[in-house]
């Protein structure tokens, strides 16, 4: 299997994988290395994919990528947001009182309510796409996806993000909201490591998000096939 190599001079490929920069950074991978996983870590990567995303082989990889593309956390967020929007203030408070004994459902509903109306129309799709790109790169290093397919799918995700969000800042806000809802942890302490990482990506002069234009043409000389299981 050919290894996907990303060099500093390959600005378009760096821009494509920059969508997953937060997860790359949080896992100790930087753009200077082309987000490269050491070959010796293949088993560790497979454990990471299995533990975090239930990806255990090529079949489950395709299934999860399809889910992220077609539904992801955005589907649950939108469903809950729509439901809460049908309730009056009093009915909503009654609903939350009924959920008080179920921490998972209560936290999810409260987080959705907190972000409702404050995010772009695309909602938390940024989080789904960030995971998508990270998984494509990691699955390649784990030996479950070839280099061309990994880059093809990541390109489709990066281009989709461009269509849904106006800039890195808008993407970042939606990304952080999505991750908080995904983890179902409303505390500021739990979110802080990711907030700090995103802040650095948005402000550090040498970070990918500062160096690479959000509106860079990502489709030039590339054939985009957006669905993981398309022929």
Automatic annotation (TrEMBL):
Domain DUF1266: 49-214
One Pfam family from the record: DUF1266
Name the record gives this protein: DUF1266 domain-containing protein
Organism the protein comes from: Saccharibacillus endophyticus
Lineage: Bacteria, Bacillati, Bacillota, Bacilli, Bacillales
